[in-house]
Specification:
255 residues, alpha/beta, Rossmann fold, five-stranded parallel β-sheet, four-stranded mixed β-sheet, 10 helices, 40% helix, 19% strand
Length: 255
């Protein structure tokens, strides 16, 4: 980008030529099935992640290989059986220069060239054990965004006494925001928001049955919360919650 702008200043490129080059450098086309957004990190602060669902294994491998040429890679919603199918080919990407990590609960594959320096802390809480997979997705993504994550699982309203010491611990550790993951009636984010002075991000999960089936009861409860300071993401969207939380943390650090 700097080279293109310098050539524009020096008169070696026209405005139209520079504009075309800047646009194309942020998009890499893989045959006729994928376009890699290489400039997303610069625009939004978080690189493009690969969503595994709906892609066949060979296309997924090619996309991972294309992204790996530029460094770290994250693949979300990758079931374990699919990871096992592509594992051997993934392990040889970049001649082994990228470390491969797969989190079974989070269903996330990460290829990394080292650990990211952690700045700022995020809390992640779940109401029940069944909510942990979504919480783990949030944890892995937040850590890859450069945040330290403190977790406390299975502290929902059915046994509310379990919650208070964990909230106190997180606040003492100076978390800047707390992600609260809950299914069933989705009450936990409201309780947490009434106890803390940091933003709370509610993540409804599809855990539930009857009127709670699919997570819509939890979603509506969080949207209807009377406790101020809650933002709510889509059902099972641990990824979105983590990116939003990391954005909050980064802005806090900058201030």
């Amino acid at each position: 980008m700097k080279k293109i702008l310098q050539e524009l200043i020096n008169g070696r490129l026209s405005v139209e030529e520079a504009e075309k080059m800047l646009k194309t450098m942020q998009m890499v086309e893989l045959e006729d099935f994928a376009k890699i957004d290489t400039g997303r990190d610069l625009r939004t602060g978080f690189p493009e992640a690969i969503f595994a669902e709906g892609k066949d294994d060979q296309d997924l491998i090619k996309i991972i290989q294309g992204c790996a040429k530029r460094g770290r890679v994250m693949v979300t919603r990758l079931e374990e059986d699919r990871y096992q199918n592509i594992k051997e080919e993934i392990n040889f990407i970049q001649d082994g220069s990228l470390k491969v990590e797969y989190n079974q609960k989070a269903k996330i594959l990460v290829l990394k060239d080292g650990e990211i320096e952690k700045q700022g802390k995020i809390g992640v809480i779940t109401a029940g054990t069944s909510d942990i997979p979504v919480a783990e997705e949030a944890r892995v993504v937040a850590e890859e965004a450069g945040c330290e994550v403190l977790t406390s699982y299975d502290v929902g309203v059915a046994g509310i006494h379990r919650l208070f010491s964990k909230i106190r611990w997180m606040l003492e550790e100076d978390v800047k925001t707390i992600i609260v993951v809950a299914g069933m009636e989705g009450a936990l984010p409201s309780v947490v928001a009434g106890l803390v002075d940091v933003p709370v991000i509610g993540v409804p999960t599809s855990v539930g049955y009857g009127v709670g089936e699919g997570g819509f009861a939890a979603l509506n409860a969080m949207l209807q919360s009377c406790a101020p300071g809650i933002a709510v993401v889509n059902i099972d969207n641990g990824f979105g919650a983590a990116v939003f939380a990391a954005t909050v943390v980064k802005q806090t650090i900058m201030d």
